[in-house]
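Subject: design request, 112 residues
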């Protein structure tokens, strides 16, 4: 009887050892899967972060271009206003000259 209990005890211990080994392997596999998932999430996060950085950089470049274009348009507008002012002065001068010439002509006619 005692020998049967010893044998049963050995069978149970070896069964638990096998079961423990199986559970340990299973646990290691689960941990490994979790570690790989976390690594993949980190890599995906880095990839998304890199894409986001790239898009932000692209937006910043477009903003710089926009402000450069806006500044250039402002300069062109100022040049255009100056040209219009110069044209207006020239037209006024021509009108004055034309009026003087008409007045001179009228004076000459009146002398006859």
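Subject: RE: design request

Done. Sequence follows.
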């Amino acid at each position: 009887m005692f020998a049967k209990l010893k044998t049963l005890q050995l069978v149970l211990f070896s069964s638990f050892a096998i079961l423990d080994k199986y559970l340990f392997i299973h646990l290691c596999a689960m941990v490994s899967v979790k570690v790989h998932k976390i690594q993949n999430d980190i890599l995906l996060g880095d990839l998304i972060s890199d894409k986001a950085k790239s898009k932000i950089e692209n937006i910043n470049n477009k903003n710089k271009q926009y402000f450069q274009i806006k500044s250039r348009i402002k300069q062109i507008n100022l040049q255009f206003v100056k040209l219009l002012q110069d044209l207006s002065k020239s037209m006024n001068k021509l009108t004055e000259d034309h009026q003087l010439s008409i007045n001179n002509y009228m004076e000459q006619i009146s002398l006859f």
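Helices lie at 2-111.
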